[in-house]
Automatic annotation (TrEMBL):
Presence of the UniProt keyword Membrane in the record: yes
Domain DUF1707: 16-68
Transmembrane segments: 92-109, 115-132
Record-given protein name: DUF1707 domain-containing protein
Superkingdom classification of source: Bacteria
Entry keyword annotation includes Repressor: no
Region feature Disordered, mapped onto this chain: 1-21
Source species of the chain: Paractinoplanes abujensis
C-alpha cells in the first residue's frame, strides 16, 4: 500500500513530538515530588494532567523546571531506580571478578613470580568504587540534565584551581 506524499512539504516547525516513555518519566518525577511534599495534591494532579496531554517535548520541561534539579533527586530515590542501580552495580562487580579470575589464570599459566594482575585489578576496583559512589549521577547524565559533582554548585570555578601564573 502506497501513500500519496505529493502535497507534504515536511514539518512546518522544529518541535519534536514526545513519546509515552518520556511522558511517563516526567510523571514519575512529579509523583516523587508529590511524595516529598514539594507539590500539593491539587497542583501535582494538575501537572500530571498536563504531562499526559502534552504532544511535544518542549511542553514537558516547564512542568518540572521549578523542582530542585528538575526533580531528578526525588526520582533517584524511587524503588525502581534503586533496584536498577543495584543491578548495574552487581553487573559491574561480576565483570570485575570475572576479569580478575581470567587475569589470575593467565598469571598462573605464565609462571611469573610477580603478581602482575594486581595492576589492572587496582584500576578495575577503583572504577567500581567510583561507580558505586557516583551512581546517581549516571542516571542524571542519561537524561542530559545532570552534572558531575565537580561541575556542580559549590565547587568553585576555574579560579579555584588557579596556579598563580599570570598568563592565561
Amino acid at each position: 500500500m502506497e501513500t500519496d506524499n505529493t502535497n507534504w512539504s515536511g514539518p512546518s516547525t522544529k518541535r519534536v513530538r514526545t513519546s509515552d516513555k518520556e511522558r511517563e518519566h516526567v510523571a514519575e518525577i512529579l509523583r516523587a515530588a508529590m511524595a516529598e511534599g514539594r507539590l500539593d495534591l491539587a497542583e501535582g494532579e494538575e501537572r500530571l494532567a498536563k504531562v499526559y496531554a502534552a504532544k511535544y517535548r518542549d511542553e514537558l520541561a516547564p512542568l518540572t523546571a521549578d523542582l530542585p534539579f528538575g526533580g531528578l533527586r526525588a526520582l533517584a530515590d524511587t524503588p525502581d531506580h534503586r533496584l536498577a542501580t543495584r543491578r548495574a552495580l552487581r553487573r559491574h562487580a561480576w565483570a570485575v571478578i570475572s576479569v580478575g579470575m581470567i587475569l589470575t589464570g593467565f598469571w598462573i599459566l605464565s609462571g611469573a613470580h610477580f603478581f602482575w594482575p594486581a595492576i589492572p585489578l587496582i584500576f578495575l576496583v577503583i572504577g567500581f568504587m567510583k561507580h558505586a559512589r557516583y551512581r546517581h549521577y549516571r542516571y542524571e547524565y542519561s537524561l542530559g540534565h545532570g552534572v558531575a559533582p565537580w561541575n556542580g554548585p559549590g565547587w568553585g570555578g576555574p579560579q579555584q584551581f588557579h596556579s598563580g601564573h599570570r598568563g592565561c
